[in-house]
Write a structure and sequence with these properties.
single chain; alpha/beta; Rossmann fold; Helicase, Ruva Protein, domain 3; 3 domains; 5-stranded parallel sheet; elongated
Length: 462
């Protein structure tokens, strides 16, 4: 049962509260501020009912407001519902301004009070879930927003910590969409060069005749149209980091110039003859098989060993276990907030489809599909069709271990699954007898029929 603290100096009202709420909550009772704060500190209830009309202390201080301030100072997220007389409505409004969750006026209407309490617990649970998600995001924010709890990702985070303080060249390897640039940025941001620039360039996205000028710059008159001197990426990255993405696509002629820089820390602009000293760290990335490229003569072996003093291999999403569920929940929360939607989770079939999809586009593809699903879903649960994935049977095949059916999913979705499981189990035990199943579950038959319809449960009488 959930704890609820009732702070009230009138013993008759205390008895009424105990009688009216004890079926749903574990009612803690206090007659004064000292007892209230002792119980509040020991039990840490999420919801408190506080009488503002507590007798003042020996100094004439209003105990009700003192108690409210102390509680909110100790636990700002507590939902304090204040109680006051009909003639003291202004005090109630003042308490709400000070941080109280809600108020009601004496004499108490228990039905109305139950609604207020239920809503207070609901909002408290939502805030707790949001805090949990933010803690996950904050914990990983130091790694450039990367999120991962699987051993492979934890190893990558540890490697980032180790290599960031050095100045060695790093080669990051992984499929498209795994987050290679995020790893490079994380290394830069944790390095002694963090105040300097981080300059990325995709070596495979720029034609060969332009890539040299982009990297090294050019002098006035170096070629037709070179009307003025142009600074290249190497110079822009001075005192910082140059990120060479898709270095496996770099032409052989430019590989020689990159190698010379790594050996001498000097470059020449196109059309120039003067050496320019540059102090920049090189981090490279590729989704190509450089070992095979070296065998085929497409990539220089000496350059490979220069850029791969440290090599970081990012696993594809399909090999990251339950990280996929963690990422799914975070993307769902992100796009719920962005598009002002209230999608509570994913169906079991959708989760099965996510687990079984090979994710050739990795994390980038998952994020794009979740964004699309949140925009297009017309219900509070995302189905495979919203994700653009094939329907999957609603079996437990998705879960790696039977004991982890609820691991890594949002609280609201876990509750729905638990409710469905309990209904299915009760019906199975009683061989489809709705009357007996409803009695076991402690609900009425109409309520059970509603749940059967809600979860599309097939009732088989045997």
């Amino acid at each position: 049962m959930k704890d609820i603290l009732v702070v009230e100096d009138d013993t008759d009202i205390q008895t009424q509260m105990k009688w009216g709420l004890s079926k749903e909550y574990n009612v803690l009772q206090a007659l004064n501020r000292p007892d209230a704060m002792r119980l509040f500190t020991e039990k840490q209830p999420r919801v408190v009912i506080l009488d503002l009309g507590l007798p003042p202390d020996e100094n004439g201080t209003a105990e009700g407001f003192s108690c409210l301030n102390e509680m909110l100072k100790k636990a700002p997220g507590t939902k304090v519902i204040v109680v006051t007389g009909n003639q003291e409505r202004e005090n109630a409004l003042k308490a709400v301004q000070l941080g109280a969750y809600d108020y009601y006026l004496k004499p108490a209407d228990m039905n109305e009070l139950r609604v207020i309490i239920k809503r207070a617990f609901h909002f408290s649970e939502i805030e707790a879930e949001n805090r949990r998600l933010h803690m996950v995001l904050d914990r990983e924010a130091g790694f450039g927003g990367m999120i991962g709890q699987c051993p492979a990702m934890q190893k990558i985070f540890a490697t980032i910590e180790k290599v960031a303080s050095t100045d060695v060249a790093v080669l990051i390897r992984g499929e498209s969409g795994t987050g290679k640039e995020l790893v490079a940025r994380a290394i830069h941001e944790r390095s002694l060069r963090s105040k300097g620039p981080f300059i990325p360039i995709n070596c495979g996205a720029i034609p060969e005749n332009l890539l040299e000028s982009e990297l090294f710059g050019y002098e006035k008159g170096a070629f037709t149209g070179a009307y003025a001197r142009q600074t290249g990426k190497f110079e822009y990255a001075d005192k910082g980091t140059l990120f060479l993405d898709e270095i496996g696509e770099m032409p052989a002629r430019l590989q020689v110039k990159i190698l010379r820089f790594l050996q001498e820390k000097k470059i020449q602009r196109v059309g120039g003859s003067k050496d320019i000293e540059i102090d920049t760290r090189i981090i490279a990335a590729t989704n190509a098989d450089l070992e095979q490229a070296m065998k085929n003569g497409g990539f220089r072996e000496d350059l490979f060993f220069r850029i791969s003093v440290i090599s970081i291999d990012i696993p594809p999403l399909r090999e990251r276990g339950n990280d996929i569920i963690l990422l799914t929940n975070i993307f769902l929360e992100r796009y719920n907030a962005m598009f002002r939607k209230r999608i509570s989770g994913l169906s079991r079939s959708a989760l099965n489809a996510i687990k079984r999809h090979p994710w050739p586009g990795n994390v980038r593809e998952l994020e794009n599909k979740l964004q699309k699903a949140v925009i297009t879903a017309d219900a509070d649960i995302i189905e495979p069709c919203h994700l653009g994935l094939e329907e999957q049977p609603e079996t437990d095949a998705f879960w790696e271990k039977p004991g982890k059916r609820y691991e890594g999913i949002m609280l609201r979705e876990a509750r729905k699954r638990l409710e469905r499981d309990l209904v299915e189990s009760a019906l199975e035990r009683h061989r489809g007898n709705v009357k007996r199943a409803s009695e076991e579950l402690g609900i009425s038959r109409p309520t059970l029929y509603d749940l059967i319809e809600k979860y599309r449960i097939s009732v088989k009488k045997t």
